[in-house]
Prior knowledge:
Blueprint: H1 21-25, H2 40-43, H3 57-62, E1 71-72, H4 76-84, H5 86-90, E2 101-102, H6 104-109, H7 115-124, H8 126-132, H9 135-149, H10 153-167, H11 172-181, H12 189-196, H13 210-225, H14 232-246, H15 253-256, H16 261-275, H17 285-308, H18 313-326, H19 328-344, H20 352-356, E3 364-369, H21 374-386, E4 390-397, H22 404-407, E5 418-419, E6 430-431, H23 440-449, E7 452-455, E8 466-471, H24 474-481, H25 489-505, E9 510-514, E10 520-521, E11 536-539, E12 543-546, E13 556-559, E14 562-569, E15 582-583, H26 589-592, E16 593-600, E17 610-618, E18 621-628, E19 634-638, E20 652-653, E21 659-663, E22 673-679, E23 685-692
Parallel strand pairs: 1-2, 3-8, 3-9, 7-8
Antiparallel strand pairs: 4-16, 5-6, 9-16, 10-15, 11-12, 12-14, 13-14, 17-18, 18-21, 19-20, 19-22, 22-23
Helix pairs in contact: 7-8, 7-11, 10-11, 10-12, 13-18, 14-16, 16-17, 16-18, 17-21, 21-25
Amino acid sequence: xxxxxxxxxxxxxxxxxxxxxxxxxxxxxxxxxxxxxxxxxxxxxxxxxxxxxxxxxxxxxxxxxxxxxxxxxxxxxxxxxxxxxxxxxxxxxxxxxxxxxxxxxxxxxxxxxxxxxxxxxxxxxxxxxxxxxxxxxxxxxxxxxxxxxxxxxxxxxxxxxxxxxxxxxxxxxxxxxxxxxxxxxxxxxxxxxxxxxxxxxxxxxxxxxxxxxxxxxxxxxxxxxxxxxxxxxxxxxxxxxxxxxxxxxxxxxxxxxxxxxxxxxxxxxxxxxxxxxxxxxxxxxxxxxxxxxxxxxxxxxxxxxxxxxxxxxxxxxxxxxxxxxxxxxxxxxxxxxxxxxxxxxxxxxxxxxxxxxxxxxxxxxxxxxxxxxxxxxxxxxxxxxxxxxxxxxxxxxxxxxxxxxxxxxxxxxxxxxxxxxxxxxxxxxxxxxxxxxxxxxxxxxxxxxxxxxxxxxxxxxxxxxxxxxxxxxxxxxxxxxxxxxxxxxxxxxxxxxxxxxxxxxxxxxxxxxxxxxxxxxxxxxxxxxxxxxxxxxxxxxxxxxxxxxxxxxxxxxxxxxxxxxxxxxxxxxxxxxxxxxxxxxxxxxxxxxxxxxxxxxxxxxxxxxxxxxxxxxxxxxxxxxxxxxxxxxxxxxxxxxxxxxxxxxxxxxxxxxxxxxxxxxxxxxxxxxxxxxxxxxxxxxxxxxxxxxxxxx
Length: 697
């Protein structure tokens, strides 16, 4: 064997399995392949038992003279398991084998300390797993299945195994619990359960079988579609009844696999019904705004969440029908009441106090987020507080009409340098000095002259001064996606949160988030109202410029930049045109009441305070060292940074030296990309580092 090099000073040991010493002594009968080894017995040492017999595995394990002196049960089953596990046995520390009587099950366990996992891996892909395992491991697996689960993989087969798994009886209940914890690790099991579902009329538990969940989803879809035929009060009652029947499915394993979208959505619809149990009242715009800010905004969030829970066109249509049945009446009533109040008591223009809250001190930066509606801002602030940041949320009235050209400059630090002359076609004010239209370039020059750096989306600027930056695409996506905007809200919140965190990490003491307007949103389309073109100079979705002295039969409001100019707005939640599922420019709490968020890092941990200093792999075990002063930190390995469901290990706490060890239990993931994440006490990611499972080598 020329490829074998024996280090100098080391004595080679030759182990010859299935070759006895007697064969080497009987030179004439010795097989030719062994004859070159005959003379070694005379110039070397043969290691034998004290009685001169050749060693066997069993003899070596039990012998107290020259062997290991272990307590091994006698019997054919133990001997078979011992020989089958020989490869694993050879690398097992002796200390693990001492102090107990070793039986067949102990040797089988050397292949895996986790028979439940092995069983699920086999059920997920029976042929592939059996071909990958050597005969010893397969024999050990069968032995443990017979002993622990009363099941023979060879004789019974995977369909019987899947039926036993689904019935969850006896020891199979533990197997089901493991599958339900992380079903994505066993992708073949759901289809096997589908094939193995018993024909019993009332087979239990019903949650085990994918057909039952699919049938329930189909039933729920039909029920939601039928809501459009009910009165609003009956529709609300029906939603709560559907939640009682289907809410439990959110605890089924199929929810973790993303197969209960409507069951997820019905929970949000039930919350919508609770929040909108009564109409949104108030005797003044300010009082109505307080009621909305104190909790009524949750109706808008619940509606978005319900729509975001589904993906297919059929499911989206069902949710749209449900929202039109229970959300639209409340939305219409609130808008009509609000417009009636504003007609008596117009919304205030910017005054000294409202202007003051737009100005920041040195070290502060204003972040403008286009179309950050109040309910979405609540979601954002909740995430901020979980990070330990100091957050203060307040409200103000948007400039009317609620379109960007008018409302954006109204929330800028240069508001006093802008005025309105003519409505024109796009509601654009002018620079007070010179009365030139407020273009983007002129707006930025005003900011610069006022001492505010204009900071691009990929820049962080100088945190010792003042700054203005812009981020977020809520309005842009709303116009392009319409009703499908709901599915992108969470992504936009994440991106905005990341931008704020970047600014805080760069050294800004305070980030003040402002926005221009909110929006109305209703899948299936907001109602339309007619406004003849000959009465208007220009007509937008929810507002219009009135031509000359024309009289219009829709509400009007004062232009924010010039109280002498009147703007026509659509009544209630109507639009000047059909087919709009997303719109703004009119007068409703959703469009007009906008958030102002003041945030600083506070005592929370930001990324700059945490450093991942070491990531070392030994097989599928990852050793991590983190430099941080924040207590309560944990680490995890994930496929997607912010998705706990993509974890490939168990979350581990850092010890007092900042060290933790993570184990990837699925060896099929070796060589796959992953991300090491550091989590704060609230479970949010505060640092990350890409890695390769098992190491780059």
